[in-house]
Structures are given as C-alpha cells and as structure tokens.
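To the team - 4'-deoxy-4'-aminopyridoxal-5'-phosphate complex, inputs and output below.
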Amino acid sequence: MSTKTEIINIEQIRKDFPILSTQMNGKPLVYLDNAASTQKPQSVIDRLTKFYRDEYATVSRGVYALSQQATIECMQVREKCAQLLNAAKSEEIVFVRGATEGINLIASAYGEKFLKPGDEVIVSNIEHHANFVPWQQLCKKVGAAFKVIPVNDAGELLLDEYKQLLTDKTKIVAVGQVSNALGTINPIKEIVALAHGVGAITVIDGAQGVPHLKTDVQDIDADFYVFSGHKIFAPTGIGVVYGKEKLLEAMDPYQYGGEMVQSVSIEETTFAQVPQKFEAGTTAFAQIIGLGAALDYVNKIGLDNIAAYEHELLLEATKKLEAVEGLRIIGTAVNKASVISFELKDIHPHDIGTIVDQEGVAIRTGHHCAQPTMQRFGVPATARASFCFYNTKEEIDALVAAIEKVKQVFS
Ligand code: PMP
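Output:
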C-alpha cells in the first residue's frame, strides 16, 4: 500500500533546490523558516537567468518582438494565477509587490472610498501585522470601529464571538487563511459566509495559505484574496491581489502614473480598465515571469500532494517536539498547517535561534510580525519552525538534537 510520503519524491525534490545541499556553520543546512520565505528551485533560477540573459525587454510598451514576447508571457502568468486560485477571469488578478502592498491597496482603494464614520471592520487576534495595521489605521482615518475576533488557548478563532461582533455596520472582515505565528488554519469559507450575511465584504490574507493548501476563491466566495510570490518559490517583489471584478471596478486607483491611464490631458485623466488601473508604473515583469515558473513547479508536484506530505511532517515534528522536556508548543489548533511555534523553559527565543544555527538549523525567532498574537499568549516572542515539502523527517531529528544542545548550554 502506498503511503502519503511516497507521493512526494523527496530525493528528487531536494535536488531541485540547490541551497538544500549546502552547509551552514559546517553542518548540512536544515532550512526551517519557510513561513518567512521559501527557497527557490533551479527551474525558477534558470527561468530568471534566461529571461535576463536572452529575452529581457520591458512589457506593454514595445512594438518590437522582444517586448511583445515578454508581454505575452506576463499575460500567461496572470492566467496561471487565476487558475491557481480558480478566479473567474484573469482580469481579477492584480500584480503588486506582495501581500503587504495588496492589503494596503484594498484598505486604501476600497476602504477609504466606501467606509463612513460609525462603520465597523473586523480582523482576528492572530493576524500578521500586514492584515492588522492597515485596517486599524483605516478605521482611525475614517472614524470606523476596529473589532478583533478572539481566539481560544489553542489559537482557534471563536466563531460564536465572531457572530456577536457582526452587525449591519460591519463593512469589512479581514482574516488570514493560515496564521504565520501559530499555524492555525482558519475556517475561511464559514467566516466569509457569515460576513456576507450582514452585507460585509471579505479580505483573505492568503500569504501562508496559498503555498500549502489548494485554494478556490470562488468556492470560498472571497471578495479579495492576497498572496506573496516569495513564499511560493517565486522571486521577491511580486505578489497578487485577487478581487471580484465588480469590486475592483468600483474602486479608485491606488497609485497614479504610467500604465494605469487611458488618456491624460491638462484638464483630465481617464484610467485604464481593471486590472491595469491598479498597476501604476513599470510592473516587476522579471519577477512575474519567475512567479510563472514557480507556479509551474508547484503544479508539477500538486498542492494536494504538498498538503498531505506537509501534514505528515507536522504530525511527526509535533510528536517529537512535544517529547522534549521543557518545550511548550504555542498554537495547538486541530486544523494546522506545518508551522510550530514554541518556547523552551525560560530560554530567550533569540538564544535558541542562535544556538540551533550553530548546528545548521535555521529557524525564526521573534514576534513574527504578530504582536497581538504574542500578547494573547502572554509571550514576547517564540521560536518557530516552519516546514515545506522539501523538508525531511531526518531534518526534524536534527532540529530536536539542536534543541537538546540549547538545553545543555543552559543547564
Ligand atoms: N500575511 C502573513 C500571514 C504573512 O505571513 C506575511 C509574511 N510573513 C504577510 C502577510 C506579509 O507578506 P509580505 O511581507 O510578503 O508582504
């Protein structure tokens, strides 16, 4: 009988990522900071190199073949993003720099236009700052109320409390698909349906969702959905906002400049159609092309296979870390992605991170840009290991051995 592990050809996959066979501090690199950013497969590196070396030209402007080819490829990547999210059409895909810029775009171009004093915006207690601060600041600017869905001690959203927060004044509900600090997978379809019940629109921060879970924005019925390319094997500096076409059309531009206009005169400017209306300036076209190669890579492995294997890693790592005396996992939701935040006795997370690095193990330490989450759990910071489908069970053992070294140092 085939096990889930066999679905992933781990040996081949690790060969696809050159950095995984390098050493760090004289030890094999064990890269466990995937929630912050993922490593890049050779196919993405090769695509970028080839584009810069043989095919480089700006998009949209040129009548010459080089520029036209690059333009066509960028259009194809927009289509690939629409397929990834199952958007109804590629015009609903806006290229931005990343999830942070995407959420700021929505908060400004939708929020500032449609919110009035007395309206309400709801986020959750376990959002990344990128899906917290823009809404908090929008509320201050327009005089709206800012409400926060609480979580239980496992880090799961309290849906009954959420229902209590919803009123006919709620205009926006912004929630992450997966918490970067705790790993909680939120029931976003239910959250969206409840928001729609009071006439609110929804913004889903998919930064930690899209690399690990098959996502269907039409099935979720999300009004907006954002993600960052660099967390899904693409280059830095590229991300996506999905928005329902009628909402994108109703919004004013976020930034003004070249490429987002139809015509400009001294008296007046008319704007381009969606999505170009939101893509002022020269787009990050090389990064877009890199994103296309990254999505090809993900599709080759298959998000269902990725999710199944990463779940195995999560279960194995949870079991092994729970067995470490003095270690406490923070974030124990039933439905979790492969992110494990923990504290170890009273050892400062930065000390944990520094010592395990000496063993070649790269983990994240700090507040993970989620200070309200840290406050909820009464800790200033945690150590966090986040796993990707290129990680192995042997690497979990290396993490555990490195943590035992930390304990020895502090014994
Ligand atoms: N949301 C979540 C859940 C994240 O984990 C991150 C990145 N850590 C972001 C938003 C922001 O992404 P970026 O920095 O790529 O804009």
